[in-house]
Design goal:
The complex is a heterotrimer. By secondary structure, chain A is mainly β. Chain A is built from four helices and 38 strands. Chain A has a domain of 208 residues: Pectate Lyase C-like (3 Solenoid), CATH 2.160.20.10. Chain B is globular, with a radius of gyration of 19 Å. In chain B, α2 runs parallel beside α5, α3 runs antiparallel to α5 and α3 packs antiparallel against α7. Chain B is 86% helix and 0% strand. Chain B contains twelve helices and no strands. The longest helix of chain B has 31 residues. By secondary structure, chain B is mostly helical. Chain C is of the alpha/beta class. Chain C contains eight helices and ten strands. In chain C, α7 crosses α8. Chain C is globular. Classes of the chains: A mainly beta, B mainly alpha, C alpha/beta. Chains A and B meet through α4 of A and α3, α7, α8, α9 and α10 of B.
Chain lengths: 418, 255, 235
């Protein structure tokens, strides 16, 4: 909570700064059928540095709108900017631009160029907010953007194939970005980060995207907080990054062969805290992860709460709840360089004689059958049969297949309140 | 036929074992649900009851009942009654009593604590397994004249369906792990009603895990309306087939 | 009425019936006689369809009994050892049989034996608590209850006390006088003297002879059935 408040303060501060830097003698140009200017293009041409362009409702088919000076482009009651499936709707090439309140539809689709509904080219301090993007190839695109804010946009696409679809919010080689409160669905990746640093992804809702709800690569020192990632083709992927903070997010119903609440690959020095993982095929999949703190998360009714490949080390899993998962932990090797202490596991069958709320015997979260299924996936068909329960019980008494060191020495007797 | 069924059911209901079975199921399921803090674990306990205890009791009780009713059957056979009628009445009486016991013993607690799709699927599978194993028991009993041998056969059958078959499958899975045998496994699972029932429940209970690599193949088949109907058809065949065989045997049996 | 034609039955290696051909007609009272294990009970069970013969056939009133069941409504059967569902009371057994046979029975039901054996006082007793004799009484009562045209009695007097035995004999004579076909198998030949009109003698599953009692007496010169049979056996 405290962290959230800090973030809110931070954002308010930025917004206030923006207000204060308004030029004092700014003009307002109105665009509309019976207004002084009929097209947005003409208004932009007419506008001076620091002016505001107010656009009244209507359909504007103006091919590619290029904003190359510092203006505020504000739509009233969502005027529509139509790219006619050929053009990039709005290209921003000047710092300090604001685009607000537009309905941006039908951008061009190309396999060579990344057309977007709204695209930022190598600039800074741009704010894009309260827009509705529908059927755009890429939604909002930042290329070498710095200190930009994308806020409360609604970004929808309806493609069925990954090749036909771009990403909802796409940031490439950008820094200090704020992605806040956007709703994204139907794109290839909901939010895409590549070489993006020092940025915040907060309160977004990314659902039903074809591939990942959030796709995150080579992006360091970023945080994503209080987002919802639900029902995406493959969940969320966070790869080749360090110093990433993942707080308070909700990962739900990411179902499929290669679908994960989060896929972590080559991640280091990061934190995963207070998240909820519900009904995912695999809650968290980790490969080549090191120095990761995983605390106070809740894993509920997942196929596997987590899969930790043997290439991971120094992961601390503590104070989490594991409830109703088919398998708690799956792994592919016997070497364990991670610690799993002080979690609540609903499958724990131990006792607590000294009444300190900590079980007196360790819990082994890797069941024998999860090892068998790992080696031979079709064996899943025998899961929960009499024979496999017998095997699991035997293994509990005499561990032979499951890793000896993978255990929680202080398993909690009662679930944590998270 | 109704007349004979009436007397079979009256006779079974008077049987203390049947009452004990119902109470046993009831107390067990109630305690499972009320002891476990989350209902999912309760369902898991119940799954074991359905997959292990229901077939066992169904098989053993029915087999013993048939042997103990030898006099009754003999009496009926000398009367103007079709043999098929006598046998079908015996089956109907046993099947409906087992179903009734299961519904009262396990069905009511499930409806109280977990009346969702998973719970309903469990009740349905439990009922089908009860009936299937009555039919299998009748076949075992009609095939062997000796009571001890017949009960032995019933226990072996139970062991086969609940343990040996799965062991054999696991063996096959590892023997042929280099081949794409997932689809064949769908077919193989049809050969054991317990496995088939378990997979159908699994697809409701462990849906998240079943969406994974192999699960997906089961999901793609059993999750569809066609696959679902086919599985239930197979379960019904598992009732009809042993029953028809046992009727045919009983018609030729010397008493 | 009942015609057995070349009936054979094997239990494993034991030849229980061997090419047995017999004709039984209405109004006859036939004694089925033979040493232990000669196939008498098997033959009776074959007629009742409880044992299915390997070859040959049996007709009842001209109809093959194979895969037929309705003909049994014309038969009253008293088994050698009456075995009944143990949990049922006498009353329930009687009610059940009435229930099962009510479509084919001739009314009024013949409850003569029930009254004379005083079974009415025992209706609440469970079958498993009954003595062998009482079970026999129930069996006998059931066999006669539905006025069948054929009575098949397998060792009817075994286990009965002399009084009951006498009651049963009187009943058999009464039914005989009504022109029914009665088949009795018994070891106690002296009992059969006043009853039977014909004798079927079996040995090792084969028919030795089927004669009227007069002819048997003429052939052996013995008046008593027991002595006559003894003489036959010595030959």
């Amino acid at each position: 909570m405290e962290r959230n408040q800090q973030i809110v303060k931070y954002i308010l501060f930025i917004l206030l700064l923006g207000v204060q830097t308004l030029p004092l003698r700014a003009n307002t140009i109105t665009v509309g059928k019976n207004k002084s200017v009929a097209t947005i293009k003409a208004a932009i041409a007419k506008a001076m540095h620091g002016d505001t362009v107010l656009v009244y409702p209507g359909m504007y088919k103006e091919k590619n709108l290029v904003i190359d000076k510092k203006i505020w482009l504000i739509g009233i009651d969502y005027p529509t900017v139509d790219g006619e499936n050929k053009y990039e709707n709005i290209s921003i090439k000047s710092p300090g631009v604001l685009v607000q309140g537009f309905k941006v539809i039908n951008s061009g689709v190309s396999s060579i160029e990344d057309f977007a509904g709204i695209k930022i080219y190598n600039t800074r301090d741009v704010i894009i907010r309260n827009n509705k993007l529908d059927n755009t190839f890429f939604g909002i695109y930042s290329q070498y953007g710095t200190n930009c804010t994308f806020e409360n946009n609604e970004i929808r696409a309806h493609n069925l194939e990954e090749q036909q679809s771009g990403n909802g919010i796409h940031c490439w080689k950008s820094d200090s970005m704020r992605i806040i409160g956007n709703q994204i669905s139907g794109h290839r990746d909901g939010i895409y980060f590549e070489f993006v640093t020092n940025s915040l992804i907060w309160r977004n809702d990314s659902q039903k995207n074809l591939r990942y709800g959030l796709h995150f690569m080579f992006s360091n020192h970023d945080s994503y907080v209080t987002n919802i990632f639900k029902n995406n083709g493959a969940g969320v992927a966070v790869m080749f990054s360090h110093h990433v903070k993942m707080f308070n997010n909700h990962f739900e119903e990411n179902w499929g062969d290669a679908a994960y609440g989060i896929l972590l690959k080559e991640i280091s020095d990061s934190h995963i805290e207070n998240n909820r993982f519900v009904k995912n095929t695999i809650g968290i999949y980790m490969e080549g992860v090191s120095r990761l703190q995983m605390k106070k998360n809740s894993f509920e009714r997942n196929g596997w709460a987590m899969k930790i490949q043997a290439s991971c080390m120094d992961i601390t899993v503590s104070s989490n709840n594991f409830l109703g998962n088919t398998f708690d932990v799956g792994t592919n090797g016997s070497l364990v360089l991670n610690t799993f202490n002080g979690n609540y596991w609903d499958k724990y069958e131990g006792y607590d004689l000294n009444k300190n709320h900590i079980g007196d015997i360790p819990y082994r979260p890797v069941s024998m059958y999860s090892v068998i299924v790992e080696k031979n996936p079709p064996a899943m068909m025998l899961f929960r049969s009499f024979m496999t329960s017998l095997l699991d019980k035997t293994e509990k008494v005499l561990p032979s297949l499951t890793p000896e060191n993978l255990k929680d020495i202080y398993p909690l007797m009662k679930p944590l309140r998270l | 036929m109704k007349k004979v069924i009436k007397y079979v059911i009256i006779d079974i209901l008077r049987n203390k074992i049947m009452l004990g079975y119902t109470l046993f199921l009831f107390i067990l399921s109630l305690s499972i649900f009320s002891l476990e803090d989350n209902a999912a674990k309760g369902l898991l306990g119940l799954l074991n009851i359905i997959l292990i205890i229901v077939p066992l009791v169904s098989l053993i009780f029915s087999t013993i009942y048939v042997y103990n009713s030898a006099e009754f059957i003999e009496l009926l056979v000398s009367q103007p009654l079709k043999r098929k009628t006598i046998w079908m009445s015996l089956f109907t009486g046993l099947a409906s009593s087992m179903t009734l016991a299961f519904l009262a013993g396990a069905g009511i607690p499930v409806l109280i604590y977990q009346s969702d799709v998973t719970g309903l699927m469990m009740i349905l599978i439990g009922v089908l397994l009860s009936v299937i194993f009555v039919a299998v028991a009748l076949l075992a009993a009609v095939k062997t004249r000796d009571k001890a041998k017949g009960i032995g056969a019933a226990i072996l059958l139970w062991l086969y369906f609940s343990l040996l078959f799965d062991g054999f499958i696991l063996f096959l899975l590892f023997q042929f792990s280099d081949y794409p045998i997932e689809k064949a496994m769908v077919g193989v699972s049809m050969l054991n009603p317990i496995d088939l029932g378990r997979i159908l429940i699994l697809l409701k209970m462990d849906i998240s895990a079943m969406m994974g690599y192999t699960g997906a193949i089961f999901k793609d088949f059993f999750g569809t309306v066609t696959g679902m109907s086919l599985s239930f058809l197979v379960l019904v065949i598992w009732i009809i087939m042993p029953l028809t065989l046992s009727v045919r045997n009983f018609k030729r049996k010397d008493l | 009425m009942i015609i057995a034609n070349n009936v054979s039955k094997k239990f494993g290696s034991l030849q229980a019936l061997n090419n047995l051909s017999v004709t039984c007609n209405k109004g006859e009272c036939i004694a089925l006689i033979g040493p232990n294990g000669s196939g008498k009970t098997t033959f009776i069970k074959t007629i009742l369809g409880m044992v299915v013969c390997d070859s040959g056939f049996i007709t009842f009133n001209g109809n093959n009994i194979n895969n037929n069941w309705g003909y049994r409504s014309g038969i009253g059967y008293m088994p050698q050892i009456g075995r009944y569902p143990e949990n049922m009371t006498i009353g329930q057994v009687l009610d059940m049989m009435k229930d099962i046979r009510k479509d084919s029975a001739t009314f009024p039901l013949d409850e003569d034996l029930i009254n004379r054996f005083n079974l009415n006082n025992l209706l609440h007793k469970r079958m498993r608590t009954l003595s062998g004799g009482t079970k026999q009484k129930v069996s006998a009562a059931l066999a006669f209850m539905f006025n069948p045209e054929v009575l098949i009695l397998d060792e009817p007097t075994a286990g009965l006390d002399p009084v009951s035995s006498e009651i049963l004999k009187e009943k058999i004579l009464l039914e005989k006088s009504k022109g029914k076909l009665i088949l009795i198998s018994s070891h106690i030949l002296s009992e059969l003297d006043d009853l039977v009109t014909q004798v079927i003698y079996m040995q090792d599953g084969t028919l030795c002879f089927h004669k009227t009692i007069e002819q048997l007496q003429a052939d052996t010169g013995e008046h008593k059935l027991a002595k006559a049979i003894a003489q036959v056996m010595q030959q």
